[in-house]
Design a protein that fits this description.
Layout (H helix, E strand, L loop, with lengths): L5 E4 L7 E6 L10 H7 L5 E6 L3 E2 L6 E2 L11 H22 L6 E6 L1 H11 L8 E5 L20 E7 L7 H13 L3 E7 L10 H12 L5
Parallel strand pairs: 2-3, 2-6, 6-7, 7-8, 8-9
Antiparallel strand pairs: 1-3, 4-5
């Protein structure tokens, strides 16, 4: 077991899939859980939100890894979080009976980075989809994206053009790399800053609903 604490929002009935939401830096498991009812109003998915393992001094929230430079996670803390999340994802799938082919990994900011990392890691099974909101594909020793085996993976990518924390070029570069690897990417950007722009909610909801409709029974 990973030992990560988590919150969850059960489906209204028998879940058709699993959605794992990874929060950003300085937040916690409560941060993105309300997004579940916004993007999955019919509550078709079982939603789980783990809490990052690292504390931030002077902050109430958590984070996943140390940031020496945006785009380049600290290897030691990144790999520790990666290992913990891998164990958490596996245990959650076993507990719910929902496998990788019925799973969406999503996150905001640092949580989007971890969604990319776990969703594209060469030692990890491919999920059905990745929702990356204001994040980037990490550059870190010991991790490379495995795109050749992810041809059936769908991605929803959003980034704000006015983001002062992680520039929009990160999202554009990630989208180009994913598309070059043969993945189907739905890309959106707006004039938002480092936030989830409400303007993309209809598109994100439609993407998630369409993807959930493809999950095996």
């Amino acid at each position: 077991m990973s030992g990560l604490e988590y919150l969850e929002r059960p489906a209204a009935g028998e879940p058709v899939g699993l959605w794992v939401l990874h929060h950003g830096r300085g937040a916690d498991a409560h941060d993105l859980l309300p997004l579940a009812d916004v993007l999955d109003p019919e509550r078709r998915l079982h939603v789980v939100a783990p809490r990052g393992p690292l504390e931030l001094e002077g902050w109430p929230g958590r984070h996943w890894y140390v940031v020496p430079r945006v785009g380049y996670p600290d290897p030691a803390t990144f790999h520790a979080a990666y290992t913990a999340l891998a164990a958490f994802h596996d245990a959650t799938g076993e507990r719910t009976g929902l496998g990788p082919g019925q799973t969406v990994l999503g996150g905001f900011s640092m949580g989007a980075v971890m969604s990319y990392a776990l969703g594209l890691g060469p030692d990890r099974p491919s999920p059905a989809g990745i929702m990356a909101l204001a994040g980037f594909l990490p550059t870190v020793d010991g991790w490379d994206a495995d795109l050749r085996s992810r041809f059936s993976l769908d991605a929803f990518v959003f980034h704000g053009r006015q983001d002062p924390v992680m520039t929009v070029e990160f999202a554009r570069a990630a989208t180009a790399e994913l598309e070059a690897g043969g993945l189907l990417v739905e890309y959106h950007e707006t004039d938002a800053g480092h936030a989830i722009d409400p303007a993309i909610v209809p598109a994100a909801q439609a993407w998630l609903e369409r993807l959930a409709g493809t999950f095996p029974p």
